[in-house]
Amino acid sequence: xxxxxxxxxxxxxxxxxxxxxxxxxxxxxxxxxxxxxxxxxxxxxxxxxxxxxxxxxxxxxxxxxxxxxxxxxxxxxxxxxxxxxxxxxxxxxxxxxxxxxxxxxxxxxxxxxxxxxxxxx
Length: 121
Known about the structure:
Elements: H1 10-22, E1 28-32, H2 40-54, E2 58-62, E3 75-80, E4 83-89, H3 90-93, H4 96-103, E5 108-112, E6 115-119
Parallel strand pairs: 1-2
Antiparallel strand pairs: 3-4, 5-6
């Protein structure tokens, strides 16, 4: 069955666009806020797809959502006011103080299974 792009759900459309980007085996894939407007099932599918892609392709991810930072991503660059605020290994960058400062709210960062989450805001 063939459907138009406009008839796809957000998750289906996102997977289609990633697939289209991967057709020519790029060395780098840039994803800008890929999880916007996705339900839980679509989020799971997106992150599963990102993890598979990361095995063969460099991913540059732009996101405000910490759980989008899949375990395979090892470097994080934080921006604040249009400038690099912090850059380094995710274990050192994704901590309470830098994330609180970037978002201007007090947070506690926790990690589980290679994913990071902000709580307390």
